[in-house]
Amino acid sequence: MTDPEAPLILRESTPAGITTLTLNQPERRNSLSMAMLESLSVALEELAGDDETRVVVLAAKGNVFCAGHDLREIREQLDQKAALQELFRLCSKVMQQIIQLPQPVIARAAGVATAAGCQLIASCDLAVASDSARFATPGVNIGLFCSTPMVALSRNVSRKHAMEMLLTGEMISAQRAEEMGLVNRVVSGENLDQTIHEMASTIAAKSSHTLRIGKEAFYRQLEMGLTDAYEYTSEVMVANLEAADAQEGICAFLEKRAPGWQDR
Q: Of 102, 103, 137, 192, which has fewest CB within 10 angstroms of its CB?
């Protein structure tokens, strides 16, 4: 049993600039209660202003990554429309905070991720899953369509795959999730942390300024038409070239040496 006084979100950072946020309520299947969402929102807000953190890993304690919203909490609020609206407003805010975070976010997908838990995985920039992980958007099974998880899911996998998950509510394997594009890689449980460490270390070695520019541009251009996307990203490229790290990187490449990033 988890200590009731223990924080809902654990934070651990390495000298290399990799910060891990861990959902820490395994006895509640790490469900996204108001308290959990509030804690996660605060942690993400703090990270957004943390220049020492270059990559974020989102993990969870226990055998369930996240079971989605706390249905017991929701049942108690069925006659409180304002409370329910606030719950989904906050959840939507957290998912957008992940996307808007300057640092890349890697989901450590071990165990089961369902409904808003699957949404959490889909909202991360990258995801590495253990071969025993499973995913579902099962709201349809209890008469509550996974409408908000659908937003992140449909922006990660094809429409047909998203609708299959949403309409059937069936659990899919990690291997199937990789085929769909919901996760980047599937590895054995014993290799999960090493794989994530290697991926995070590779990214952390890049210019954080360049990563920030690229991540923001990626998500902004996705919502644009083709012509607007090219116009916007062309402007981003020109602005990027004015940065010290881009100029250093080009010189280092041409001079066949390792770049010395200034993160600006």
A: 102
Instruction: Give the structural domain span for 231.
Output: 208-254
Please tell me the pTM assigned to this model: 0.95
The answer on 134 and 93 residing in a single domain is yes
Same domain, 215 and 194: no
Q: What is the per-residue pLDDT across 132-166, written as a single tens digit (0 to 9) for each?
A: 999 999 999 999 999 999 999 999 999 999 999 99
Domain containing residue 224: CATH number: 1.10.12
Q: Are residues 157 and 218 in the same domain?
A: no
- pLDDT category, 5, cuts 50, 70, 90? confident
Residue 41 tokens read as: 């929102």
CA distances (Å), origin 250, targets 10, 54, 118? 39, 21, 39
pLDDT in tens, 204-215: 999 999 999 999
Output the six-digit token pair for 170: 């069936």
Q: Under the phi-then-psi rule, with left for phi > 0, alpha for psi from -120 to 50, and beta for the rest, what region is 31?
A: beta
User: Taking a C-beta distance cutoff of 8 angstroms, is the pair 104, 125 a contact?
Assistant: yes
